[in-house]
Write a structure and sequence with these properties.
Elements (H helix, E strand, L loop, with lengths): L1 H20 L2 H11 L4 H4 L1 H17 L3 H4 L1 H22 L2 H29 L3 H29 L13 H17 L15 H12 L2 H30 L5
Helix pairs in contact: 1-7, 1-8, 1-9, 2-11, 4-7, 6-7, 6-9
């Protein structure tokens, strides 16, 4: 039963981050209309999201086991939930930037923790691959659902309407429910106890790993893939609205 609760919790976590992270394209269009900012100014939201993911992933990857997978996921969910409740009250472009930076940083914690958790709760390679594949499909479902959720709260007839901010209350509640489910679940992390070594040595090992030709090739391929993918997903709503004149 506890194993099932952990799996469901992991799925919900990924589903919610699929909604919020990939809402950046919709929000880029909304901030242009609502705050009257330029495309260049709105594009900073993408950087807030992606750079925070990269930075936090790099900084915490070597010692996240010291924090604990479950505790890291709880921290990520709690911070995003809090940010979602604050943003509608502050109602500023700066608050939206902070929200995406927080979401990106929290997703880095969640992603590393989830991958580690899957290793703990699966018994063999086949089960591991199966769960990973299903997890990625759940993330894609979250992306798809995000468009429907945000579109329900957006008032196309009135660009100055602040109704779209109310979506963050709904998302914040969902994050709190996910946090409650995770907190009520038991996760045995005994097999993930870190090997005792200083932080300086851990970072040194990571830098050496980054110099391997295979790792460099992977980084370049991942960069190009994300560049193409995010350029389409982030700017398609703006393109549809301003070029094709679709509401």
């Amino acid at each position: 039963m506890e194993l099932l609760k952990i799996k469901v919790s992991v799925f919900i976590n990924y589903f919610l981050f699929g909604i919020l992270l990939n809402s950046v394209g919709t929000v880029i269009l909304q901030v242009q209309r609502y705050y009257n900012v330029t495309e260049s100014q709105a594009s900073i939201l993408e950087a807030c999201k992606d750079l925070s993911i990269a930075l936090v992933s790099f900084l915490v990857a070597s010692f996240i086991t010291r924090i604990g997978y479950k505790k890291s996921m709880q921290i990520g969910l709690a911070i995003v939930a809090l940010a979602c409740f604050i943003v509608p009250s502050v109602n500023s472009f700066f608050a939206i930037k902070i929200l995406f930076a927080i979401t990106g940083a929290s997703f880095a914690l969640i992603k590393i923790s989830v991958f580690g958790t899957i290793g703990l709760i699966t018994k063999n390679e086949k089960a591991h691959l199966s769960l990973m594949s299903f997890l990625e499909s759940i993330f894609m479902v979250g992306i798809l659902m995000g468009y429907f959720v945000f579109s329900y709260f957006i008032d196309d007839a009135n660009p100055n309407s602040d109704r779209w901010f109310k979506v963050y209350y709904l998302i914040g509640i969902l994050y709190l429910l996910a946090l409650a489910l995770l907190s009520s679940s038991q996760l045995n992390e005994a097999d993930a106890k870190p090997v005792k070594q200083d932080s300086e040595k851990s970072f040194d090992q990571m830098f050496k790993l980054m110099l391997l030709p295979m790792v460099i090739s992977f980084i370049i391929c991942a960069f190009l893939y994300v560049l193409v993918e995010q350029s389409i997903m982030s700017w398609l709503p703006t393109f549809n609205n301003k070029v094709l004149h679709i509401p």
